[in-house]
């Protein structure tokens, strides 16, 4: 299975892999609980995939990305 969007593309949005994973996991849990996401045409069928798509589409950002 290929991760889409790719980690390389995601790291152009969030520099740290640790921060990226943490943000995606927290957001995936929110999506799972609320059944709501911020995407118009999602490609992913999984909660983590939806969270990663939101990051790629600049729907989620980190306040202090170092």
Automatic annotation (TrEMBL):
Keywords: DNA-directed RNA polymerase, Nucleotidyltransferase, Transcription, Transferase. It catalyses: RNA(n) + a ribonucleoside 5'-triphosphate = RNA(n+1) + diphosphate. Its EC number is 2.7.7.6. Pfam families: RNA_pol_Rpb6 (PF01192). It is an enzyme of class 2 (transferase). It comes from the Bacteria. One of its GO terms (cellular component) is DNA-directed RNA polymerase complex. One of its GO terms (biological process) is DNA-templated transcription. The keyword Transferase applies. Belongs to the RNA polymerase subunit omega family. Promotes RNA polymerase assembly. Latches the N- and C-terminal regions of the beta' subunit thereby facilitating its interaction with the beta and alpha subunits. This is DNA-directed RNA polymerase subunit omega. It comes from Gracilibacillus halophilus YIM-C55.5. The lineage of its organism: Bacteria, Bacillati, Bacillota, Bacilli, Bacillales. The gene is rpoZ.
């Amino acid at each position: 299975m290929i991760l889409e969007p790719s980690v390389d593309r995601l790291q152009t949005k969030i520099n740290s892999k640790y921060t990226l994973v943490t943000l995606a996991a927290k957001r995936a849990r929110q999506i799972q609980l609320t059944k709501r996401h911020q995407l118009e045409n999602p490609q992913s069928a999984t909660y983590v995939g939806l969270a990663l798509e939101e990051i790629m589409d600049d729907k989620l950002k980190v306040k202090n990305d170092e």
